[in-house]
């Protein structure tokens, strides 16, 4: 029996490490299986697999390039001003758990792989029985699942340090599986509207944030419209700037100019002496052209990322029909949040990133002024991907004004919430915390409930997650499943025209 279990665990570990944690291959596998179920010709199956996989690799290349182009600023602000602080970043957070979980709780990080397996199975079962659960999205972003499983492991151990290995794995799997299913399900409607029925949801670290800010911007926009302020819901793509300002109508030009302004100020503050000493600039290199290149490369990598989105999304959504029809009717895949940056106004992502950064930097300054026990250093992943995506959704739902306001609020909350939870549970002392929107808001809230209510708190958290999709369904019973099964019919039902 032990030998069989070890063999099965070895198969799962191989799958998790080489496919589930490698989103490009996971997306490729979904396309492969979907096309096989649709009985496509063999060369169409291979073609779809390759296009989806390569497309996702292009997206990753763009994402990694964006991170690298911003690295001098992240590292520079920390080193130049001698900030010994915690970095809010998924990879720093995962590393903090890896280093600290044994020292603080005497537990092995290897349990996160079992947690990942059990929670993933629960997510699939919840969608399979959507008639009762009202859940429509399968979380497929494996690398994100590993990061979240690690952080959730720490938070549960903080709340229940004496709970046995098997009981805590069972409890965590149920709560985390519910979070994955409920969170990605929250993004279905707003993503379908943004992409005009591309048939995917978001499976990432800011799912509750996307839902909240999309709803908030829509509500504020409608409220303003009732007062006669029709300009309130004007989107960035609807704005045609006159005269010399017309160059901002081209997103590549506008991104370059905005980043030149944004990067330029910070790099001037850091100074060429520091940048040369840190190895970011070469000795004798022109400081002006270094700033220019860094700023323009940001626009280059953003364009690469958007190309990757266009390459793989069509294959994924078309092929998932086979899986949906056979195994998970009415469901959509939950994928990386970067996918939405290829939709809506391209400028919305840049605006969202910039105002989110302003919010983060302001809150970091407030933490310094208030002598916070934990000083936060901004990580690029929450800085960009949370706030850029929120900017895209808010621009689509509420207009350009909310593409600025909502990411700014998000930036404030990311830093304040992360500083609170990481200090309280002890992760700050290991140098990092996941730090993205849901993990600076929703999960601190869950942790407070479980810490102070004990086992009852687990039931309360699970009940909250179970109720959310039921409330969503009650708000639109006729269109709730229609939005994924027949988007055009859903638009007719709700009076949505292509012009809107």
From TrEMBL:
Keyword Transport attributed: yes
Quaternary structure and partners: Homodimer.
Any one GO biological process: phosphoenolpyruvate-dependent sugar phosphotransferase system
Gene Ontology cellular component list: plasma membrane
Function description: The phosphoenolpyruvate-dependent sugar phosphotransferase system (sugar PTS), a major carbohydrate active transport system, catalyzes the phosphorylation of incoming sugar substrates concomitantly with their translocation across the cell membrane. The enzyme II UlaABC PTS system is involved in ascorbate transport.
Subcellular location: Cell membrane
Family indicated by similarity: Belongs to the UlaA family.
Organism placement in taxonomy: Bacteria, Bacillati, Bacillota, Bacilli, Lactobacillales
Protein name: Ascorbate-specific PTS system EIIC component
Transmembrane feature ranges: 20-37, 49-67, 112-129, 149-182, 252-275, 287-307, 402-425, 445-468
Presence of keyword Cell membrane: yes
Pfam families, alphabetized: EIIC-GAT (PF03611)
Membrane topology per record: Multi-pass membrane protein
Matching InterPro entries: Ascorbate-PTS_EIIC (IPR051562), PTS_sugar-sp_permease (IPR004703)
The entry's keywords: Cell membrane, Membrane, Phosphotransferase system, Sugar transport, Transmembrane, Transmembrane helix, Transport
